[in-house]
Design brief:
heterodimer; A: alpha+beta; four-stranded antiparallel β-sheet; 2 helices; B: two-stranded parallel ribbon; 10% strand
């Protein structure tokens, strides 16, 4: 991973940028609320790119007018899970979309060990490749 | 907001600031649409002045804590507590004290859960929804039920108290309820009382105020009173006030609704003749005099409902 020296996981929006400040997070949430998307806070300790469904922190928040409430939840979640990845997702329920329209990481563990590349010999000398996050080396519940 | 600070010898224009905030429009609307309620309007004006001055002070970099604006409205039924709360959200929004200026009106049911562990998330959700605006808790004294020590209301009150303190910038809480019950509520929750800076008492309306309210209500629905009907109404109001379950503006609205009923019935009974526009919008003396208060000196046979604010 020489191109990403800090081993920072790059998923979702803004992940190549320095971490967003609370003001910047509020501004992004405000945009989501303006579009009537339901915003939720999710967390995980497994940064594998195929790990799509993270754990939800509380329920998705509907009918909010102001980002302060969501930022409060983000901070609660940070306090409860300081060593996990936390992201904010905005879900658009409009027919035809019915999908997350925004998703960005708002908290990372202090140390991101990165991924191990695993090679697999297959039939006919072909090679299969996969990656495994070092973060999941230990069983769930004993990590971090 | 964090624009450059003004030098100490700069001059600012309070008048310009006042005009820029458009608070005067809301105030004028308040004066026009709400009859009477002198102490309430005075207090709103004071709050508006404080917030404007505060804004100017910030331009000079004079810091002070954001004033707490949690309020408590007490008063008899039908004195306009909810209406003022709604207007309050708008005023605070114009003054830039709250960001969105929406009103979330809730009662005990929306805050207190049914079983252990249900209350906290429920209360928090309501608070989150109200952030950036005004949280209006109607009949707030129901939150606390002293006769049941395992009541979850207390839990809800504690969460509210905490948010009123820590999220002062995000949320304005307005409690409302009848005077005696609210007093008892505060007696058992001294923490709540001390966190609310503004206790505003809504006075009962005088008969002449009720008359202007009646006229306003009718005008809103495109009705008018004939001169003799106006006289009948001014006789009706003191009569109604002396009877039990009088709830100010709400009783008047009910009386007017019944008058409209009688007007429709009167027009219907003479359907052989052609009606003019004037006939349709005018409430005649007989429509008011048809009230049972005039005929029998007692209330219409309506169920003796518990009036809600």
């Amino acid at each position: 991973m020489m191109t990403n020296p800090g081993n920072r996981v790059t998923q979702g929006q803004f992940s190549f940028l320095p971490d967003l400040t609370d003001t910047q997070i509020s501004a992004q949430i405000k945009y989501a609320l303006k579009n009537h998307w339901a915003v939720s806070v999710e967390y995980t300790d497994d940064p594998h790119p195929r790990n799509t469904y993270w754990e939800m922190y509380g329920n998705p928040m509907f009918d909010l007018k102001d980002p302060a409430g969501i930022l409060m939840e983000v901070n609660n979640c940070r306090k409860a899970m300081p060593n996990m990845y936390i992201r904010v997702t905005a879900f658009d329920s409009t027919k035809g979309w019915e999908a997350p329209r925004m998703s960005f990481i708002v908290n990372r563990p202090p140390n991101e060990p990165g991924f191990r590349l695993v090679r697999q010999e297959r039939d006919g000398r072909s090679q299969g490749y996969s990656i495994i996050p070092y973060a999941t080396d230990r069983p769930e519940g004993e990590r971090s | 907001m964090d624009a450059e600070l003004l030098p100490d010898d700069a001059v600012v224009d309070l008048q310009a600031e006042f005009e820029a905030s458009h608070v005067d429009e809301v105030m004028a609307k308040l004066d026009h649409e709400l009859v009477g309620l002198k102490p309430v309007k005075t207090r709103i004006r004071e709050i508006a002045a404080l917030l404007l001055v505060d804004r100017l002070r910030r331009k000079f970099g004079i810091s002070s804590d954001t004033p707490t604006l949690h309020m408590n409205f007490t008063g008899n039924p039908g004195t306009g507590k909810t209406t003022v709360a709604l207007r309050m959200a708008e005023i605070l929004h114009r003054l830039g004290y709250v960001r969105e200026g929406h009103l979330v009106a809730v009662t005990r049911d929306d805050l207190v859960g049914q079983y252990v562990g249900h209350t906290a998330p429920k209360t928090r959700e309501v608070i989150r929804r109200a952030m950036g605006g005004v949280l209006f808790i109607d009949e707030a004294y129901y939150l606390y039920k002293p006769e049941n020590e395992r009541d979850y209301g207390q839990e809800s009150i504690e969460i509210l108290l905490q948010c009123m303190e820590t999220n002062r910038d995000d949320l304005v809480v307005i409690l409302a309820g009848y005077k005696d019950k609210m007093d008892r509520f505060f007696l058992s929750n001294p923490g709540m009382r001390s966190r609310i800076a503004h206790h505003i008492d809504f006075p009962d309306y005088r008969p002449d105020e009720l008359e202007s309210i009646a006229e306003l209500m009718l005008a809103e629905q495109n009705y008018r009173l004939s001169p003799s009907a106006t006289r009948a109404l001014s006789e009706y109001i003191p009569l109604r006030m002396s009877l039990p379950h009088f709830s100010n503006a709400r009783s008047i609205r009910n009386a007017l609704d019944r008058a409209r009923l009688r007007q429709a019935n009167r027009l219907f009974s003479q359907r052989s003749r052609n009606l003019t526009r004037l006939d349709l919008i005018t409430i005649e003396e007989t429509d008011i005099r048809g009230s049972r208060i005039f005929l029998e000196g007692k209330l219409e046979g309506e169920p003796q409902e518990i009036e809600r604010v």
